[in-house]
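Researcher: We're teaching a course module on how sequence relates to structure. For the next exercise, students receive a sequence and then see the predicted structure as tokens, so they can try to spot secondary structure elements on their own. Here is the exercise chain.
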Amino acid sequence: MIFSALFFFTGIILMSLFIGDERLATNFDAKNLPPSFMNPFGTDWLGRDMFARTMKGLSLSIFIGLIASCASVLVALLLGLTAALMGKVVDSIISWFIDLFLGVPHLVALILISFTLGGGVKGVIIGVAVTHWPSLARVIRAEVMQLRSAEFVLVSRQMGKGPWWIATHHILPHLIPQLLVGFVLLFPHAILHEAAITFLGFGLSPHQPAIGIILSESMKYLATGLWWLAFFPGLCLLIIVRAFDMLGDNLRLLIDPHNAHD
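Model: And here is the predicted structure for the students to work with:
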């Protein structure tokens, strides 16, 4: 499963790099063509190759998902460590923020943040990063709470080591598996939410070949029988999201086999 997900991921990136911009150009002589050998995903109402648009859109979604997930993991790590190591007052404040963000639907908060920042790639990345950290931060906080009472941590504390020295030398290495699994599980959610707000018109610019824009534009042509405009982009999006979702579950079982029977 791990190799298949990575193979699919790498294939999309490589195909998007080697596909030339001429396949995204308007060609009215080839508009509304059904799937064929020359155009596996067919063409749209402007004669643009849907396979090329889908690969470009997926690569853009992957790029946004990677950056947003990395930023979200860093926020969760910083706040989780701070909550567990800086005393009860700080812990209460951060726990309140975690509960606050968990109480607001992701999509609503993401739309508000992205719209406030003017949309585009920057707005979507910041919106996804800001709204996807609470669950992972809660897991990290609970893990650090257990680690801080371990013998090696108590010995370092008795030797006069500060909280951040203990965090970076003792606690952080134990959190790497949780961070890796958290990143892999956040990544498909980031892609789906980016596509969702772009589909609703609050995300990326209509001039960019994003999956959300492709699906939004294709809705008005489905009634005319051009089913391939939405079917193939939507199917590819679901495959990559499901692949990384299963990859995250498998990594979690490898790291903690006791959860296999839960």
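Model: If you want an answer key for the exercise: The chain has a mean pLDDT of 82. Residues 219 and 230 are 7 Å apart (CA to CA).
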